[in-house]
Specification:
This protein is an alpha/beta fold. It has three domains: 2-224, NAD(P)-binding Rossmann-like Domain (Rossmann fold), CATH 3.40.50; 233-320, Orthogonal Bundle (N-(1-d-carboxylethyl)-l-norvaline Dehydrogenase, domain 2); 323-455, Rossmann fold. It contains 18 helices and 14 strands. The strands form three sheets. A six-stranded parallel sheet has the order 3-2-1-4-5-6, sandwiched between helices. Strands 11-10-9-12-13-14 form a six-stranded parallel sheet. A two-stranded parallel sheet has the order 7-8. The chain is elongated and about 80 Å long. Bound molecules: uridine-5'-diphosphate-xylopyranose (UDX). The site of uridine-5'-diphosphate-xylopyranose has 20 residues, from helix 9.
C-alpha cells in the first residue's frame, strides 16, 4: 500500500521504516531539511536498536523516501499518518499546534481518491473530530486559492477521507521489536472502509509474519470508537506509571519496616491478576511518554470537572522517588557539600540516548543545590557527546574515571553493561566506596565483596 508518514520523531520514523520493511511504499515527510538530508543518506537521527539497518535496506529496495514536501507525501499516500510531537505545555496540557498545522496542511493538499488520515500522535481525547475539522478547513483554503487563481472550485472528491485513531505503544529502546511484536493493535473509527484499509495495512504484523515468535496466535485487533482509542493510550500509560509508583511506595515502606521490595515484588507478581512486569522499584519513571501523558490525563479530567486524585498521587510519589537517592546519600555521607558523587547512567532508561524528563536531571539539580561536585558516565551520552541539561556535571568517558576520587556512586540507569564493571577496581579508586543502586539492578553480595557499602531502594535501608 502507499503510505505517507508526517513527522519523523521516534514514532513516525519507526512506523515508516517498519511499514516499508513489511512491503509498503512509504514517504516520510518532515519540515526539518537537515534531518531529511540525513535520513536520505541512510542515517537515522535517533538511536533505536535495529532501526538504521532496516532504514538502509528500505532505501535500497526503494520502499522508503524522505522529503520536506508535504504535498508530494499527501499525493502519494492512501494512508496518511500524523506522527508529529505533542510536547507538554507548562500547564501539563499537550501542545497540539504541530498536529493542527499538519492536519490543515493535509487538507490544503488533498485531492484525488479516498484517504485514511491516522492519528498516531498522542492527542487529547476528542482530537479525532478536531482533526477532521482542521482537514476540512485546509480543503476550504485550497478551494479558495483555486478560485482566486481562476481555477475550478469543484473539488468534492478531495474531501473524501476518514480519520482513524491508531495509538502506538512503543517503548524507546525496543520500538522496532515492539512494532513487529505488538500485544494488540487499536483502531478507533466508526467507518468500516477506513478500518478495512487499516487491517490490510497491518495484516503482515497481525499474522506475525515478522514476529520473533511466529507460533503465537495472531495479534488481537481492537476496533473502537475514536475517543475510546484515544483514551486507551492514556489509560495504558497512566496505569503503568501508577503501577511503578505503587511499587515505589511499597519500597519506601519496606525500607522502614526492614523488608525487601524485590522479594515483595516477586511475591505479588506471581499473582496472575497483578502480573510480574513493571514492578521494579527504584528512582521512578521518566521519559517522553509517562510524565506527559499522566499530566495530560489529569488535565483532561480537570477540564471535565473531575479531580483525578489517584493519578495526581502517582505523580507526587514519582517526584519524591527521584530524590530518594539523595536521602540515602545523606544517610551515609551526612553532609553532601564539598563531596563528589558519580552518577552511573543519565538517560531515563537503558538503550536510548533520551534525557527527556530523566530522573537524573532532578538528582543533578538537587545535588548541585546542596553543593556537591557531580560527575557522570553514561554509555550513550558519552558517545554522542550530548550535554543537554548537564552544565553542572563533569561527564566522564569511562566508569573507572568516574569512580576515581568519588565519595559515592549512584546507579541512575539500568544499563546492562553496568552489571559487569570491574567494581573491585572502582572501589579502590574511590575516596569512599559507597554505591546507591537507584534501580535495584546490581548484585548486593557481589558489590559488598568488591568492597562497596551497597544501598538499594526498599531493600532494608
Ligand atoms: C512507555 C510505554 O511503555 C510505552 O508503551 C509507550 O508507548 C511510551 O511510554 P518508554 O517511555 O519508552 O515507554 O519506557 P518504559 O520502558 O515503559 O519505561 C518508562 C520509565 O519507567 C523508565 O524511566 C523506566 O526506568 C521506569 N520503570 C519501568 C521503572 O521504574 N520500573 C519498572 O518496573 C518499569
Amino acid at each position: 500500500m502507499r503510505v505517507c508518514v508526517i513527522g519523523t520523531g521516534y514514532v513516525g520514523l519507526v512506523t515508516g521504516v517498519c511499514l516499508a520493511h513489511i512491503g509498503h511504499h512509504v514517504i516520510c515527510v518532515d519540515n526539518n531539511e537537515e534531518k531529511v538530508k540525513l535520513m536520505q543518506s541512510g542515517q537515522s537521527p535517533i538511536f533505536e536498536p535495529g532501526l538504521s539497518e532496516l532504514m538502509q535496506e528500505a532505501i535500497q529496495s526503494q520502499h522508503i523516501e524522505f522529503t520536506t514536501d508535504l504535498g508530494a507525501g499527501v499525493a502519494h499516500g492512501e494512508i496518511l499518518f500524523i506522527a508529529v510531537g505533542t510536547p507538554p505545555l507548562p500547564t501539563g496540557e499537550s501542545d497540539t499546534r504541530y498536529v493542527e498545522a499538519v492536519a490543515r496542511g493535509i487538507g490544503e493538499h488533498l485531492n484525488g481518491g479516498y484517504k485514511v488520515i491516522v492519528n498516531k500522535s498522542t492527542v487529547p481525547i476528542g482530537s479525532g473530530d478536531w482533526v477532521r475539522m482542521l482537514v476540512l478547513d485546509g480543503v476550504a483554503e485550497q478551494q479558495k486559492a483555486a478560485v482566486g487563481a481562476g481555477g475550478s472550485a469543484v473539488m468534492d472528491r478531495s474531501a473524501d477521507f476518514d480519520v482513524v485513531s491508531n495509538p502506538e505503544f512503543l517503548r524507546e529502546g525496543s520500538a522496532v521489536y515492539d512494532t513487529f511484536n505488538p500485544d494488540r493493535i487499536v483502531l478507533g473509527s466508526n467507518n468500516s472502509r477506513a478500518i478495512s484499509l487499516m487491517k490490510e495495512l497491518y495484516a503482515p504484523i497481525v499474522s506475525r509474519e515478522f514476529a520473533e515468535d511466529k507460533s503465537l496466535p495472531t495479534v488481537p485487533v481492537l476496533v473502537t470508537d475514536l475517543s475510546s482509542a484515544e483514551m486507551i493510550k492514556y489509560a495504558a500509560n497512566a496505569f503503568l506509571a501508577t503501577k511503578i509508583s505503587f511499587i515505589n511506595e511499597v519500597a519506601n515502606i519496606c525500607d522502614r519496616v526492614g523488608a525487601d521490595v524485590t522479594q515483595v515484588a516477586r511475591g505479588i507478581g506471581l499473582d496472575s491478576r497483578i502480573g510480574n512486569k513493571f514492578l521494579q522499584a527504584g528512582i521512578g519513571w521518566g521519559g517522553s511518554c509517562f510524565p506527559k501523558d499522566v499530566s495530560a490525563l489529569i488535565h483532561t479530567a480537570d477540564d471535565y470537572g473531575y479531580d483525578a486524585q489517584l493519578l495526581k498521587s502517582a505523580v507526587t510519589v514519582n517526584q519524591r522517588q527521584r530524590v530518594m537517592a539523595i536521602e540515602k546519600l545523606q544517610q551515609v555521607l551526612k553532609i553532601l557539600k564539598g563531596k563528589t558523587v558519580g552518577l552511573l547512567g543519565l538517560t531515563f532508561k537503558p538503550d536510548t540516548d533520551d534525557m527527556r524528563d530523566a530522573p537524573a536531571l532532578d538528582i543533578i539539580e538537587q545535588l548541585h543545590r546542596l553543593g556537591t561536585k557531580i560527575k557522570a558516565y553514561d554509555p550513550l551520552v558519552a558517545q554522542s557527546g550530548m550535554r543537554h541539561g548537564l552544565s553542572n556535571v563533569h561527564v566522564e568517558t569511562d566508569p573507572e574515571r568516574l569512580a576515581d576520587g568519588c565519595d559515592a556512586l549512584v546507579l541512575v540507569t539500568d544499563w546492562k553493561e553496568f552489571r559487569t564493571l570491574d567494581y573491585s577496581k572502582m572501589a579502590q579508586l574511590m575516596a569512599n566506596p559507597v554505591l546507591i543502586d537507584g534501580r535495584n539492578f546490581l548484585d548486593q553480595e557481589a558489590l559488598e565483596k568488591a568492597g562497596f557499602r551497597y544501598m538499594g531502594i526498599g531493600r532494608c535501608g
